[in-house]
């Protein structure tokens, strides 16, 4: 009689343990669900943040390309300069020389080319006019601006692009840019081995100024102007 109650007691204890396990499992499952949802929400939030960062980086890259690549493209493809058409000369100028100055430089380059002087000679011609008149066809000279006189004490009579005195030619000849250029290159062409001389020294031999190195400061600018204005006109 005592064995049966004992078996029933064991079964009750076993049943109680199983029920306890089920409760524990269920309660544990209920505790885990909020954590899983939070983790999923955090992952979604991180994905959204990452998407925003990537979109911002992409937009920034586009802006950088616009500000960098477009100016570079324009710089590589400048509008052509036609030496015979002043309307194509850049408004910003070339190395600070613009307007009337570039028109006079074009006349010097064209005239020199017609007389058979290539790039080296053309640069010398532009250098000279830069140093003498700032590439302006002025009707006055050193006497009017600085009171300079000739070695014999007489007033200088220099005028025009090349500041040529009266023994170079008439006032009309010296004030005509093409004719004044021709007078300059006529004398330069008669100077032996001018091509092998320092450019400023060759000019000094033609112009007979006081400082044979004076024109050197204009060599880089003259080279830039000649090269810019000598390209193909397309």
Tell me which oligomeric state these chains represent: single chain
**Count of DSSP H/I helices:** 8
Distance between the termini: 123 Å
Topology order in helix (H) and strand (E) letters: HHHHHHHH
Rg value:
45 Å
Main β-sheet description: none
Return the average pLDDT rounded to an integer: 83
The SS-based structural class is: mainly alpha
Report the principal-axis shape. Answer: rod-shaped
Helix content: 55-70%
Sequence stretches where pLDDT stays below 50 over 5 or more residues: none
How many E-type strands? 0
* Beta-strand share of residues: under 5%
Short overview:
The protein is mainly alpha-helical and 234 residues long. It has eight helices and no strands.
Outline the structure in words.
The protein is mainly α and 234 residues long. Helices cover 63% and strands 0% of the residues. Helix 3 crosses helix 8. It is rod-shaped. The mean pLDDT is 83.
